[in-house]
Amino acid sequence: MTDRALKDLSRKFNAIYATTGRPSIPPEKLLRALLLQVLYTVRSERLLMEQLEYNLLFRWFVGLNMDEPVWVPTVFSKNRDRLLDGDIAEKFFHGVLKQAREADLLSDEHFSVDGTLMEAWASQKSFQRKDAGGAPTPDDPGNPTVNFHGEKRSNATHESKTDPDARLARKSGGHEAKLAYTGNVLIENRNGLVVDTELLLSNGTAERDAAMLMAERIEGAERVTLAADKGYDTKELVQEMRHMNVTPHVAQNTGRRGGSAIDGRTTRHAGYRISQQKRKRIEEVFGWLKTVGALRKTRHRRRRPPANGPRRHAAGHAA
């Protein structure tokens, strides 16, 4: 599957790499190495380079000869940024998704959505007041003592000095607040395969905003269903989904003020109950992402602005 997806991207590779200057890391090998890093839970690119020194299976998959030198970690990171800037990783994702669609593994009618907090690569000490003047000289510049107990801190008055895009957020009232991003996933309900992702700043409505963005990008003009948990049960989201030719199979939050936005027109159908069963598969994605994929804490800082992609109109047609 990797061979086929990379073959389809060969023309794109030729466009982003110059023919003059010092040779860069071949993008095919770079992408294969990044894939191994995620699949085999390698914590850092430096450790990945170490494994490539002696792991023959890794060398075979990446395409390195037994006596070929391994790249310097900093050079690997620089070339990785170029790969991301060229949207190659995203195109690779869609290349694999295309193969799953051709094998009839994807549903084009029934989907589920959910979000999770991705802890930012920033410490609580870095979350400081935006209007702070000349700070006192720290006792230890490398690891200064910071006493923020009793201080009211919010995203309106404070920001991280190491990752300004990170936001202080918590999943529920019983959990501690952490600097994080909101990672969102859209899966199809037949086999629970991921078909779209969206990373947004944690602002309280990020999960619902991402659901609408990904619903707009669902291909086709036919009506589809979108399952979600109680956190998505708001009148604004339900109305907007219906305008986009999407039937919201959202779990009812009967305890909210004003009652649930989902009524008997939706819940009386057997498909609603099936969607509520299937949507739980999305938790398996988050579990794999944070344990095997080692992305419980993101390894990157700041958020790259999203590219302008096709949107799903109210009538269901692509722009």
Outline, from the CA principal axes? Answer: flat
Mean pLDDT: 86
Which stretches of 5+ consecutive residues score pLDDT under 50?
309-319
The secondary structure category is alpha/beta
Number of helices: 12
Q: What is the multimeric organization of the chains shown?
A: single chain
Strand segment count: 8
Radius of gyration: 22 Å
- What is the string of SSEs from the N terminus onward? HHHHHHHEEEEEEHEHEHHH
Sheet-strand content, in percent, reads 15-25%
The helical percent reads 25-40%
Task: For the record, give the distance between the C-alpha atoms at the N and C termini, rounded to a whole number.
Answer: 30 Å
The largest sheet is: 6 strands, mixed
3D architecture notes:
This protein is an alpha/beta fold. It has twelve helices and eight strands. Strands 1, 4, 5, 6, 7 and 8 form a six-stranded mixed β-sheet that branches. Strands 2-3 form a two-stranded antiparallel ribbon. Helix 1 (2-8) crosses helix 7 (88-102). The chain is flat. The two termini are 30 Å apart.
